[in-house]
Amino acid sequence: MSFGGKRAIITGSNSGIGLGVAEALAAAGAEVILNSLTDRAEDHELSAELGARHGVVARYIAADMSKGAECRGLIEKAGGCDILVNNAGIQFVSPIEDFPVEKWDAILAINLSSAFHTIAAALPGMRAKGWGRIVDIASAHGLTASPYKSAYVASKHAIVGLTKTIALETAGQGITVNAVCPGYVLTPLVEAQIPEQMKVHNMDRETVIREVMLQRQPSRQFATTDQVGGTVVFLCSPAADQITGTTISVDGGWTAL
User: Whole-model pTM above 0.90?
Assistant: First the structure.
């Protein structure tokens, strides 16, 4: 399987899940566009290194995904795309009565509205080519809920609904639209939380991972960014031509409970 000649845009992709998805698509031969809020030399170096590693064109385009005009501008600056992966997201935890309004607005803007804008901007080009793949990175929290995560859970449930709606609007046009719902994934952000959790619970690393962090993940194992990336590659492959408007969970059984 090769995505030679295909351009992929992955939002929020200078680390974590987004970077894992970019690596997987680049390894399959796609041109990749990395994105995040910052515009540092190391961001552009990251894309250059990724491209050289896989022998593909790779670029970095900064865009603030909380702003609709910049979301749409990302698609335009990239020259359109064949594959769009909406991955940008943020989180905040608080009881709803104390939830800061600005945090609610930011989470809905980045986790949900950014996908609305990028999809709207990318679809005309996909329709013109008669081929396109849109993959929205939702979450296990797009299918279930946890307390104190009202904005995050609401945004991820909404992403699943948006995915289904756009799938119906594009059915039969050579375009598929699906959502991937990861559980806990071992990213640098999650890795950084482990030492603090060890201190709080007075547990060793493996115990705190298994009994605290992965309490709701029946496999008691983190998913990896490679596994999420591989799932995205599958959804973009010919084997998934008739898979559209659905979710694929990469959650160690979390949503089976």
Answer: yes
Asked if 184 is an active-site residue, the reply is no
Q: Cα–Cα distance between 257 and 152 in angstroms, integer?
A: 20
**Helix crossing, 114-129 with 150-170: angle to 10°?**
20
**Sign of the Cα pseudo-torsion (66, 70, 76, 77, in order):** negative
Rounded distance, CA 75 to CA 226, Å?
Answer: 25
Whole-angstrom CA distances from 227 to 29, 63, 187 are 18, 26, 12
Identify which of 186, 184, 170, 175 has the alpha carbon closest to the alpha carbon of residue 84.
175
Contact of 255 with 184, CB cutoff 8 Å? no
Amino acid at 39: D
What CATH class has 7-185+223-249?
alpha beta
Residue 47 in this model has a pLDDT that exceeds 80: yes
Domain ranges, ordered by start, for the chain: 7-185+223-249, 186-222
The 3-state DSSP class for residue 144 equals coil
Model pLDDT, residue 76: 98
| Region at 80 (left for phi over 0; alpha for psi -120 to 50; beta for the rest) | left
CA 163 – CA 175 distance, rounded (Å): 12
